[in-house]
Amino acid sequence: MLSFIIAVFASYSALNLAAKISRSRGRTQKWWLVAGSCVMGSGVWSMHFVGMLAFHLNVPVSYDIPITLLSMLCSIVASFIAFQMLLSKGVNWAKFALSGFCMGSGIVAMHYTGMAAMRLPAEIAYDRSYWLLSAAIALVASYVALLLFLRFRDHTEVSWWKWASALVMGLAICGMHFTGMKAADFWCGNPNAIVSTDAGEMNLLLLAGVTITTFFILMVSWGAMFFDRHVLEKMAYSDPLTGLPNRHDLNRLLGEGIDTSKETAVLFIDLDRFKTINDTLGHDIGDMLVQEVGRRLSGYLQDGQKVFRLGGDEFLAVAENCGQALAEELASGILEVVTRPFVLQGNELYITASIGISLAPKHGTDRASLLKTSDTAMYNAKNAGKNRYCVFDDDMDKRLLRRLELEKDMRGASERQEFYVVYQPKWDAQTDTPVGLEALMRWPHPKFGVVSPDEFIPIAEETGLIIPMTRWILEEACRQNKVWLDKGMPSMIVSVNVSVRLFESQHLLYMVEHALRTTGLPARYLELEITESTMLYDVPDMIRQLNGLREIGVRISMDDFGSGYSSLGSLDQIPIDTIKIDQLFVRESDSPSKRAIVGAIIDMALKLHLELVAEGVETREQIDFLRASGCNVMQGYFYGKPMNIEQMDEWLLQNAGRPSGETLV
């Protein structure tokens, strides 16, 4: 009975180790392979010799130690070879058959080598039929063991299937042993050698060997269990970079939902400008920064508050017994902690964070709802200017759903021909003639009505849809301008806005050449407008692409100059023809400070031999101020709102008699 129990236990331990052998790689896999082979081989060996301890011949019996150890080695080596051959995912039947034969032969060799280690005053003879039957049982047991190895090698959970499989394997292994013993005939030619022995008397050396081997099996199995429950669990639920609990631990915490009897706050924390630090100082500094932020957050939080790292520069804090007021206080403290300077390898870094707050049970009790609402609130905080926190409300959810729906519908809007182009004229106030047009995209959404470009253009840039959309508006604007030129309308340049995503794609020059070639519009009648934010892109590469565009005759204009990112340091290097003064300065031109800024921009442009266009012109006072300052070309509602093709045709006909201002632009 003990031999059967050992066989079952060894089989179950080997099945458990099979999963570790399969999942691990490299040197770790070799260690688990050796451990699994030792457990399987020594388990079969222990079962055999426990059975021998139960076998009594009434003659003195001892065992040759080297041969006994050799019998164990046969079983272990056979198990190692079989497991090694079955490690690959795609196991063919030929390899399986060879593996089973190796393992079965090893068990047979172990059994009969162990029998050969017996030292007794008798001879052993074997019945051929039973011998063959024992060998067949050994082969069947081996094939069953390997089939179960393949079945359970990718499963780590404890299941009744494993215990049932271990019972089958234990029966097969015991069946082989006792069938082999049935095949053995012991002949003692000396009657005086037969002595009366106590059934309970055992070979102490053999008993010690079996005990040590069984203890080894227990230790390996316990070690594997400890490794699973402590080492692997820590690896699975801890972030390797910061040591903080990771997303899996968060899922485990929130998996069963939040206790609705008390308030809980979830704070989604995202670092601002982290990508810039990563790109400029390298990923090593970025990793050190994440580690330091993790230490500060975990050191700041108190009992009942826990911080997780979700990945990248994203963290999440969960605070129990925390209402909105306490959550906002906690968020303010986190912002203050994060904004303290970081000194990393001689670099003094300053960063900020954006935090979104959701409250349970107010905003949900399950993991998905709380993560979604806190993430939505975080993006609202980031869009509001960063370095702040924002508490989720229902309006945010509506805006998020609207954004998702716009993104979904935008993917098919071009195919459904929902987009159309409007044109806003540019006017030379000195000659009183039209000198250009800006092509602007409009989207009459079938559900939401006309969607503002300020809303759908950022979505298009984020998703990459801006590239096919720009390709379409380029071709449409060039085609329409060619139609107007062929009709004898005033010769004007049409401007098209270009996103930084077009420079990143490296396809901008090809797209422009294709649009000009397919429409027949001369390149001098096309202008591309870039924004100052384009300076955040690789400036040398952007200059290279802009030079390529200017070489084919396309004009370049910098839109919204002065509105955000400073490009003064490289303005003289960037190949542009025109600067467009941002409408913010024009709209507030009655302010002395704004007048000073506009005057400085105009003076700088004239000295750099750049042409000027003022945006947002709506009043005669603004026109007089701009002309007095040296800017004559203007764009705004005073001269014309954005118009569709029919309205633009009528507007151009009204101004067709004016002399062309082509040479003035």
UniProtKB/TrEMBL annotation:
Instruction: Give residue ranges for domain EAL.
Output: 403-656
The residues covered by the GGDEF domain are 262-394
Xref: InterPro entries: Biofilm_reg_signaling (IPR052155), EAL_dom (IPR001633), EAL_sf (IPR035919), GGDEF_dom (IPR000160), MHYT_dom (IPR005330), Nucleotide_cyclase (IPR029787), Rev_trsase/Diguanyl_cyclase (IPR043128)
| Keyword entries, A-Z | Membrane, Transmembrane, Transmembrane helix
Residue ranges crossing the lipid bilayer per the database entry: 34-55, 67-87, 93-118, 130-151, 163-184, 204-227
Residue span, MHYT domain: 1-187
Q: Highest taxon of the source?
A: Bacteria
Recorded protein name is Diguanylate cyclase (GGDEF)-like protein
Task: Please name the source species.
Answer: Paenibacillus favisporus
